[in-house]
Every structure is written in structure tokens, then in C-alpha cells.
YetF C-terminal domain-containing protein
Amino acid sequence: MTDLFVFIIRCLIIILATWLITNFIGKKSIAQITPYDLAILFIISNVAAQPLVSHDSFKTAFGMILLGLSIVLIARLSLLKVFYKLDSSPSVIIENGRINEAELKKNRMSIYMLRSLLRVQGYFKLADIRYAVLETTGDIAIIPKASARPVTTSDLTLSPAEEVLTYAVIIDGQLSEQALCAVHLTKQWLVHELQVQYQAHISDVLYAEVDDNHVLFVDLYKKNKEASL
């Protein structure tokens, strides 16, 4: 019983240490992890797992269950205000057009990495950014300055039609009855439209989709495209 208690304490210490280390490393998404970062994470995971290695299968299984429960517990704790500040609070790295150096250092992010993240979002000039927030996932959310903001339909006083869902009714020559039912159409309707619009059959279609307005888009196999020209 004493051995099991020691094993539980060991698991809890490792969970706490791993959480502290990953928070110390800073917020990074998978796409932003460098080969060096990845190598270090592998080493950390191996070192963390070593104390849990046991020839006793019961202890090993118990340790795995305990680690799984810890993930659920941490997810629940992250909903609490106090824990949110420690684990889940985003970082404002550009505020009112100025770089927040303290937040950059806190998240171990260089100017080069910041500029790279901005370019991925389509902003090549730092002068165009009013606010930039580094999320806990490692992604960056941007509020551009008014002069750099993309034009919207409301700016042009337009009233565009609402977006509608589309359903793949044919994939690789195979009909999806379920997709047809979703848009309240029949196989007979589809066969008729294919014949009228494309002089094609279901087996001739690589991909076809229909939206809620019953607008049909069809992409034929290459040989059938050439035949229909």
C-alpha cells in the first residue's frame, strides 16, 4: 500500500512539473514548433516518463489512468478564474499599434517570429496592426487599423445573399442518397439535370454538389470532360 501511495505522489509531481515546464516554454502552436523545440519536447517527455516505468502492470495501468484523469481535471480547472489567469489567458502582444515588449519576452517570442505570424495572416506591415493577441493555442488574432481593414459589403452598402450549405451528392461516380434527401431532391432530378446540362450519367461524374437553392455544380472525369467539349 505504501508503494502505491509513493507511486501516486510521483505521478502528481510529474504532472505538476510537466505543466510548469510547458507553460515556461510559452505559447506555440504545432506549426510554430521548430525542430529544436520538438527535440526538447521529446526529451522532456522521456525524462518525465522514466519515474513511472514499472515492472508492475497494475502500477503502470494505474499511472495511465491517473494521467488521463489529470487531463480532465486540468480542463475543468481552466474554467475557474484563478486558474485561467495561470493557464489560459491570452497575451496582447501589439497594443494600440505598439509592440508590447514585456509580453513578447514573457512568451519567448522574437520579432522575427511575430512578423512571420503576421505574414501568415496576410499582414506584411507591422504599421497596419492595431491589436494582436497571442492565443493559448499559439495562434494570433489581429485587429487591423481602419486604413488596413479589408473592405466589407456593409462598407459598400451592398446586400449580398446569405451563404448556403452545399452537399456532395456524387463522389467518384458514387451517388449519395443521404445528401439528396438533405436538399429534398430525388435521384430522378439529378439524373435529368446531368443529362440536360452535361450530357453525362452519374458514373461519369468525379464530384457533384448541390446547395440549398438547388444549384448544381459538377466536375466530370477528364475523359468525360473532353467528350462533352
